[in-house]
Amino acid sequence: MPALRARACLFLALAGSAWPGARAADASPRLWFAQPAAKWTDALPVGNGRLGAMVFGRVDAERIQFNEDTLWTGHPHDYARPDALAYLPRIRQLIADGKPDEAGKLAKEHFLGDPPRQKAYQPFGDLRLDFTPPDNSGSAASAAPGVANYRRELDLGTATAVVAYNQAGVTFRREVFASFPDNVIVVHLTADHPRAINVRIGMDSPHLGSTTVAPDDRTLILRGQVEAGGLRFESRMLARISGGNIRRDGNALRITGADSATLVLAAATSFKSFQDTSADPDARCRTTLDRIGDRTEASLRSAQLADYQRLFRRVSFSLGDDSSADSVPTDQRLDRVKRGGLAEDPTLPALYFQYGRYLLIASSRAGGQPANLQGIWNEQLDPPWESKWTTNINLEMNYWPAEVTNLTECTAPLFDLIDDLAVSGHRTARVQYGVGGWVLHHNTDLWRGTAPINGIDGVWPTGGAWLCQHLWEHWLFTGDRTFLAQRAYPVMKSAAEFFLEDLIKDPKTGWLVTSPSYSPEQGTLTAGPTMDNQLIRALFEHTRAAAGLLGIDPDFAGRLAAAQAQLPPNQVGKYGQLQEWLADVDRPHNAHRHMSPLWALFPGDDINPSDPRIFAAAKKLLTWRGDGSTGWSYAWRIALWARVDDGDVAYHQLELLYRRKTLPNLFDLCGPFQIDGNFGTTAGIAEMLLQSQSRTERGDSAGIPVIQLLPALPHAWTDGAITGLRARGGFEVDERWHAGALVSATIRGTPGAACQMRYGTLTTTVRLPAAGRLVLGPALAAASVPPAADRSTATER
Ligand code: FUC
After folding, report:
1. How confident is the prediction for the chain on average, in pLDDT?
2. What is the phi/psi pair of residue 39, to 5°?
3. What is the model's pLDDT at position 694?
4. pLDDT given at position 4
5. Is 390 in the pocket of ligand 1 (CB under 6 A)?
6. Confidence (pTM)
7. How far, in Å, CA of 99 to CA of 103, rounded?
8. Is there an atom of ligand 1 within 6 Å of 394 CB?
9. How many CB atoms lie within 10 A of CB 86?
10. What is the pLDDT of residues 562-591, one digit of tens each?
11. Which residue has a Cα nearest atom 3 of ligand 1?
12. Measured between alpha carbons, how far is 464 from 442 in angstroms, rounded to an integer?
């Protein structure tokens, strides 16, 4: 075979025969576009949890904007304010005296952290590929001459951003992926003609004073420092080619006449921990690249695929045949939905759901930082809300899909963060409240700030209690006893200690309450807002349960039980609504974005049908709140409506999210891009299809889980299938439905594990047979024949 044809065949085999063009029927979900990104929010994200990149896909001037998750402004710093404690009694007294504005003024002046703002997540740099011939000053993007069959896509099955086009008879293909096992971003350039690749490669950074050098003919190094005394950073790119030439060209590299090129990008900072910034970014980059040595692109690729697909492939989701929808570019699909609603594209939620899972894998892996307000992707030196971790909803929402959509490993950075916060939050507890344990307010940053910040809305001491719920949920989903004993319990116990010592007796009711506090993010400074009471009740309850399971600390558990009995209960107000505050002062039809008093309905589980009065009051408040506003507020509503089993209202919120708060690359909008809505919606969709928060014996956390099949299936989703969702108790569940009704459910788990299955009004208790797998039919009768002892039949509830 002539060399040219052989190469062309190899190219086609690598590229997939359908490229460029329509995908095969069994291909993985993907976002795709017929034009390059005009702006950052059109670009496509890749990431390995630590490194993130946005790929623009311009023909002549590719921009790959990248991030590293520890590049922030600032340096190690304790935000706790030494003189704050002196003002605490007076602030409390003013609240008790009904003078919340005076209390707020005092708190703003004397109780906020030092300084009262936290630090910001930073962009790192840009890799720039200039494909214009040296004698041509041609402009970027689709204006490139003679370009045909342009296609840009993000393949969620392989976690690869791909750009392909034909120019002057040559088909060019660019692939960009981020590898977790090798800790690099890889750019792979190929063409279906030999010697066709000509490109100048540069690297720069928006940080003043940063420099780029090409120390040899295949290496680029970018170095900089965020600010004086701040973090130092370096990224190092190694280029390899087959055929052709590569040489230094000033502070860039120039490749001419290559058959293919592989660019391997490492990046690191001097951040070691929130208390130590003595790492050497240069040594880190060299170590990363030395480890890779001369491994080929194919070798890097196979390691990346093995790692990524092990996570991503655990769940599949179909809302019917999407092959015709997939023949339409993603931005046009979204436009149709914006104009005509989801009926125009009924399968878009399946893509969006898998995109949420993709984004979590890309932005949250072991050893890295948790996904922040923008995940890991940020091009701005002054990003919205500093692109921090906001803990009065946003950070937690990022992790809602982790357990239920079978990505439990992605929680690792969150748990590392919580460990740090227990250290810095212990100082804040001691310095600002004069008590033990640890406390976190409504935001944290790379330096693990835990003191109140910004304004009086920052004076909300239950961020840590909320984060502890994730530790407990991890135990419920995984049954990992070592995790419970060694990671979860000590931190939960310390968080509970803070409240045991800090809660004060409300002079009117005698209940134990937080003060000062705030119901996120409305009203005035207050004592004992409903959300706080719910969060602390859950923390005490779970900490006691953990102590019981571990057979330790009976006295401490007894103290928790005594305090728990004195917490304010959920209260029903004069309109039949669940009250947001201790006093019955709710404004009817308050459509605030935050759903704080409904925390115990979702993500908590304390409000449930077992108490019909409170359940109805919660539903009343949920109805009052109406539609969402920010993207994340739609997402929270989706999950909440799923918890009251109303799939159609959840679906309506989903539709509005697409119409109002979704960008062409399917990133979520708060006002600006904010990733929480992507994650929260993914979790909300899961909640519509499967729930497992209830237990057969309420109040006993060891009761067997109740798994509800299709609890909130909207009428629009007549046919579908989902595999691999996780349920509490360590189960994995597949569901298939047709004409709006369950066809079958498969439950996998430890042999002998028991759960109660519910579907509509049917309920049955099952125990997994020796094979660890059970298939139930529409009436919840075992469809495959398990051993006699494991047979079960459904009964009407
Ligand atoms: C909370 C929200 C805002 C925004 C910010 C990051 O303050 O109320 O809408 O999401 O976090």
Report:
1. 93
2. -145, 170
3. 86
4. 39
5. yes
6. 0.95
7. 6
8. yes
9. 11
10. 999 999 999 999 999 999 999 999 999 999
11. 670
12. 9
Judge if the beta carbon of residue 630 lies within 6 A of ligand 1: yes
Whether ligand 1 lies within 6 angstroms of the CB of 73 is answered as no
Q: Angle at CA 275, nearest 5°, toward 270 and 281? A: 5
Helix ranges, 341-454 (H): 348-363, 394-398, 400-404, 412-428
Whose CA is closest to atom 4 on ligand 1?
670
pLDDT digits (tens, 9 = 90+) for 754-781: 999 999 999 999 999 999 999 999 999 8
Rounded Cα gap, residues 55 and 128, in angstroms:
10
C-alpha–C-alpha distance, residues 589 and 591, integer Å: 6
Q: Which of 633, 670, 678 has the most ligand 1 atoms within 8 A of CB, as the residue to mutate?
A: 670
Is the distance from the beta carbon of residue 635 to the nearest atom of ligand 1 less than 6 Å?
Answer: no
21-78 pLDDT, tens digit each:
334 445 789 999 999 999 999 999 999 999 999 999 999 999 999 999 999 999 999 9
Spatial CB neighbours of 191, under 8 Å, sequence gap ≥ 6: 11, 170, 171, 172, 173, 197, 259, 260
Residue range 214-233: mean pLDDT, rounded: 98
The single residue listed with the structure tokens 């420099």 is 211
Decide if pLDDT at 790 tops 50: no
Q: Would you say 29 and 354 are in contact if contact means Cβ atoms under 8 Å apart? A: yes
Q: Which two tokens stand for residue 145?
A: 């001459």
- Confirm or reject: Cβ of 385 under 6 Å from ligand 1: yes
Question: What does the pLDDT average to over 104-110?
Answer: 98
Distance between CA 236 and CA 264 in Å, rounded?
8
The finding on whether 398 has its CB within 6 A of some atom of ligand 1 is no
- Distance between Cα 258 and ligand 1 center (Å): 49
Residue-level pLDDT at 370: 98
